[in-house]
Fold these 4 entries.
Entry 1:
Amino acid sequence: KGNLSDFLNSAAVSGPTRVNVTGQGICYTAPIELENKQVQLNFDTPSGAAPLIVELKLLPSTGKARSRDSRSAGVDSFIVLKNSTLAIQGGKFRISADRKGVVPRNFVSLQNSQLALEDSALDALLLNDKRFQSVVQVGGGTGNQPNQVLLSRTYLSTSGTVVNSEATQLDLEVSGSLLLSQNDLFALAVKPSSSPQVRVSLNQSTLAPRDSVLAFKESDGSQSTGTAARVLAEECLFLPVPAASGGRSDSSRSASL
């Protein structure tokens, strides 16, 4: 037991590190912030035990105390990555609107970083609640390497956008996954260049948004000519998001690119 965030930022985690997380039932962690780290989190539930589900909670931290102003301002992200690599294997997460829970604006925010979710799941469908905005928020970076997001054999259900990116360099790969959104699935900033800097690969996945699968937004009002993005889709199923309790899905509306 303990605060996972504190452990990942302790001296025990230096260089590429694999961390095994074992538990059962609902467990809590404080917001996780990683900078200049390379971490792989492997989640495991003992045989016959209740599945391990991780929720966010403002736990006391040994590193630094949160001021009253920061607590009242809310939490920006469940996980923050800066110049880091994070791979999550077998993680089950939930964003709860329960009064005891904490609703961040994003599940993961990253800058100049790489994120992989494999065999993982996130339940973040908050009806009539606009606090949760995106599963993955990609900030505009200053480095030459593109941000990378991999979703493999992963289930995501969200009232927000799955990937909202302000970065004009992004590699996004989705394979063998089921993604449901009450918004756009992917809202991506693009900037024309001699070669595409935003690259999207969709393979053997089911994609069900309320609005668009891909919503492109021009970055910095650039009017230059060239190619902005490359999208490859193979063996995917595009559907309107299923109707949810407290909301209504227009079944006559098709998911649009």
Entry 2:
Amino acid sequence: EEIIMKKTFLKKSLMIVLAVSMVFTVIGCGKKEVTREKQMMSEEDKNAIYTYETIEWDEDLKDDLGSVQFSGNSLYTTVGNYNEETGDYENYFVILNMDGKEESRFKIPNRYDETGSHNVGQMIMTESGDIYGIAYDYMSEDVNGVWTWDEFYSLIKFDNQGTELWEVSLGSNSQSQIDESGEYFYVNRIIPDQSGNIWVFDTGACSCYDKEGNKLVTVDAIENSSGDVWMTKDGDFIVTKWNDDDGSVQCFEMSAIMQ
């Protein structure tokens, strides 16, 4: 019995030693890998990755700050403020320089009342300073005691003062349509390409619009109802798609799409 206990103790000790040595081996490999990566980086790359600077926001940007994006040499974001005088909640599109100092802002034309709402979201700014957003309009009506509703999506272009330059209809839903077909239209993402065109990804396809609101192409193959979209440095799209069974990641070459 004593021999068996000694063998068991030796086995456990050996397992512990092996486990500890594996941990240190992994840590050691990681350190070597990081060192090799650092050696391959230029000084500029190291500074870009390992240094940061704190940006101090203006006081009213701290109320309800949206995600901060960058475009060219500017930052932009949306911010919501409660107006105590009117009792309304107001949203603004704010452009800042790279130091976080505000350059301009305009009030986003949202509306809410008893008949419905008009809400502009998913706002982006291109490197040339063009500003776009997706407008969502909801209207409801009491017809002989039965409430019906309709929804409309559109792409809007603004100047930097908030003036609407043009609006293009993208799609719509109605209660009767949903009841009959079960299909629902939704704009998932808008993203600019390197030429300043705007790509609109919805539940059925993606469409490209130029700076004047003209539709250049529609691609039914790129369907992005619940995933996300990124653009590579070469200008191609990476699209994640999800369905009831599984998910997938696809890459679409821009030059092939635009032919």
Entry 3:
Amino acid sequence: DVLPSEEAIRDNVNTVLKKNKGKSPSQISATDNMILAEYYQNQRDYVKRSTYGDVKAAGVTQKLVSTKALVNGEYYSEEISQGMVNLATKYYHTKGSNTVSVYKGSVDKELNTSYAGVTPNNMSVDDFNAQNGVKATYFLNYIVSSNTVLAQNYVGKSKVGTTVAGREGRKYDKELYVFTLTLDNSYSVKNYMYKIKQTSNSSEFPGFKSIELTFMIDDDFTLYEVSYNEVYNVNIAVLGQVTTTGKIIDLFDYDNSFVIPR
């Protein structure tokens, strides 16, 4: 791709930290809140993300379910997609190591997966990141920075999360700050476009049309959820160019309860 480097697209986190020192989320731009939330999440030893979504293309709904976690220095991810394209992929990566072990399995209509007899593809971290765009250690697909945000808004406070893909919004025991972001269609997807190319079995990168995020954080910039409305064109074998609409939510937990499955 001909886009600037990820480093050039992202803001300097230290500058953002310094600029917003001592302020509460409601006094800070939505962009900086997301940068701070991502920064503090990356400092944690334990993170679990549960993702649910529906992606519609050519009248067919593709169901997405995924889990990603960092537990005791090990990253684990499983992504399941069922519909026009059926995919089940999981990987393991130990922090600081140079290997990502990738397993490609099968998935049925009930979203049950099987990896019976599957030999892992042990990839170097560089090869994995180059192929997937979104790095093995990342919990967010999009790049949020002052270079990628077109519009932003502080919505207010809420104890109820966003309803996505037929799942009722999560109930929280405290009021969280709610923000929205509209992202640009090129810089913000520098990493994510590789992932979509892979998961849609496309020979080309997707062409994004619109991206809107809603996220919820607390006073400590802890990120609880991010929901996405995304529209893009993608070239799929047999069908050709189709317009795809995705509604997806990432839910985060920090309670140390997840055990990495083997």
Entry 4:
Amino acid sequence: IRGEWQPIAADSQFGSPTLQRLAHSEVEPPPACVAALRSLIEGAAPANSNVLRDALQVAASADSDCAQWLVPRAMSALDETSQLTEAHWPWLMAAFVLDVDRAFAWLARRLAEAPAGDRRQVAESLGANLLNRRQHGIVVNRPDYMRPGFLRHFLPWLIENVRPEDDVEHDGIYSPGMRDDAEHLRSVLVEQLASDPSVEAAAVLAELAADDSMRAYRDYLLRLMDGRRSREADEFKIEAADVALLLAEKQRIPRN
């Protein structure tokens, strides 16, 4: 890994062969490998963004405490730039899956005064990478950006910048592009909320359905809420002791 960290050219489409194998392996790397990788990540970033992406993927998957050191390193790298370049996308994606509040706050500041076209382009790239359909995606078991509390704010932002009325219509067979991936992410995140059994997710769904910025999705959200209530009713179980309690304490004799 050390030998492949810097020599690979920035414009090379191929990264580190060793890191590529580790990033896509289901077998955890040995602790010594993870420790060595951390020392490299905390030092000078490699010239090739594919090398960096694979390194961050291995660290995020193999080191259970990586958020404590990787997020500050990622935010430090992002703070060094005034614009989101190819070299900085892996850092942003790592922060998004580990500490999305800090990552999204940074992104919002950078885009606060950006033209609408630039915001749209960044939103499309972000959506495609969050689906792991582009080269900078980082995959972990429980990505932080899937939290209901974050989705309450992120979904309206995503719909504002990847507007349903601008969706691309394709005829016949086609290869999905970045815009198609970003469009698909909107539905993926809404369905994630609907499948989340937590009380918080149910409350967020209701808030989004009432949010005027989500009007294009309102009917869809209401249908998902009805489906969620139906599933909860189907899963409701009553025991014999509950019946006895209802008869003893809740039954009322008709008055007429």
